[in-house]
Write a structure and sequence with these properties.
Chain B: It is found in: Nucleus. The complex is a heterodimer of chains A (175) and B (187). Chain A is mainly β and 175 residues long. Chain A has two domains: 80 residues, Dna Ligase, domain 1; 87 residues, OB fold (Dihydrolipoamide Acetyltransferase, E2P) (Beta Barrel), CATH 2.40.50.140. Helix content of chain A is 9%, strand content 55%. Chain A is built from one helix and 14 strands. In chain A, a hairpin with a 2-residue loop joins strand 7 and strand 8. The longest helix of chain A is centred in the first third of the chain and has 15 residues. Chain A starts with a strand and ends with a strand. Chain B has 187 residues and is mostly helical. Chain B has a domain of 107 residues: Growth Hormone, Chain: A (Up-down Bundle), CATH 1.20.1250. The longest helix of chain B is centred in the middle third of the chain and has 18 residues. Chain B is elongated. The N and C termini of chain B lie far apart (46 Å). The chains are: A mainly beta (175), B mainly alpha (187).
């Protein structure tokens, strides 16, 4: 699910980047903020950082005496993406194994759908490995699949989420 | 860690960001935490052992309890409108190498490009907003818009948290789905 969030951050501008007339402050702040936002991959609470929407406020700058850098407190709104347990989402199959498939759901590359959570589907090798059911519905690399999120886990070191998926339920599966 | 403004912070600029005289104050201690990034959007993160839930409770969406206070959910069609707008602006600004998009942007846009069923998010919101007075939460509303249900049975299957209010909301939900079906984008 996409989330719109309002966040207060501090943006630091090195002294050499400041325009002598002080007229390009907003541009300098925005560029630094965009850079900081782009470098921040994801957080546990908000999910993956997708886009910065609006720079809402720039507060008064404060000079760091030791370094001469200027710190601007800013408030901005951003868009993030996070999967929630119990949510119905969709993903694209990127790997097929005998035990299940790995899907990509938006920016999350690590969604695992076990064969035990694909009722009616069996592993088949038709040139390429895939899962198929009695109605000839296929789950293979590139298939877009609607699933329910069984569980989700945050990996602090990699700044990534991993998720478990299931097709147990009505209207879930490839579409 | 995120510093919410700190001492001496004044939100003195309005959204038009007209020219103004800047005032600066000197920071006495260099311990003040500076970051280009905030660690938190709201609730404190607590280290948790990540294990699969072994409870046999039904799998219900609890987004409203898990979202920080300063955050709200968006429907996929709303997110598409925002992200597409940003992409169009970046196409104009892309000559400036200092302007960067997050690495997840393209994947996020791809997700909503294929997933959304409605072209007009404002109309969808107008149709679903009245369900709030029948107890439907913001996140439940977003899930309904995202899954494009054909019938109220589908809604209750995809959003089991609403089953308990079936008697109360079936009728307004039926009405909303009928209006939504007219908005579905053609394949």
């Amino acid at each position: 699910m996409f989330i719109k969030v309002k966040l207060p951050w501090n943006v630091m501008i090195p002294a050499e980047a400041m325009d002598p007339n002080g007229l390009m402050i907003q541009r300098a702040v925005l560029i630094r903020l965009l850079d900081a936002f782009a470098s921040k991959k994801a957080t546990k609470d908000l999910g993956y950082f997708i886009a910065l929407k609006n720079l809402e406020e720039i507060g008064e700058g404060r000079i760091r005496e030791t370094t001469g850098e200027i710190v601007f407190p800013v408030v901005f709104s951003g868009i993030t993406f996070k999967m929630f347990k119990g949510e119905i989402v969709h993903g694209v199959v990127r790997q097929v194994h005998k035990s299940g498939v790995f899907l990509r759901c938006g920016p999350c590359e690590n969604v695992y759908l076990s064969q035990y959570k694909m009722p009616g589907y069996d592993y088949v090798v038709e040139g390429n490995p895939l899962f198929m059911n009695q109605n000839m519905s296929r789950i293979q690399i590139g298939s877009r699949v609607r699933f329910i999120v069984l569980d989700i886990q945050w990996k602090e070191a990699e700044k990534e989420f991993i998720a478990l998926a299931s097709l147990e339920g009505n209207n879930l599966g490839p579409f | 860690m995120s510093e919410k403004g700190g001492k001496g912070f004044k939100s003195s600029l309005k959204s038009s960001y007209g020219p103004r005289e800047s005032k600066y104050t000197f920071l006495q201690d260099s311990d003040e935490q500076i970051q280009g990034s905030s660690a938190k959007g709201g609730k404190g993160s607590k280290a948790r052992k990540s294990t699969l839930s072994k409870e046999s409770q039904p799998l219900e969406l609890k987004t409203d309890k898990e979202l920080p206070e300063n955050a709200k959910c968006l429907m996929d069609c709303e997110a598409f409108e925002i992200l597409q707008g940003i992409k169009e602006q970046m196409a104009v600004l892309s000559e400036d190498p200092s302007l960067k998009l997050p690495v997840s942007f393209d994947r996020g846009l791809e997700y909503v490009k294929y997933g959304r069923c409605y072209m007009n998010p404002q109309s969808v919101r107008q149709i679903l907003e009245p369900l709030k007075k029948h107890g439907v939460s913001e996140s439940e509303m977003c899930v309904i818009a995202n899954v494009c249900p054909e019938s109220i049975d589908e809604v209750f299957a995809f959003v089991p948290s609403m089953k308990g209010r079936k008697d109360k909301i079936s009728e307004p939900l039926e009405e909303a789905l009928m209006k939504l079906s007219k908005l579905k984008r053609s394949a």
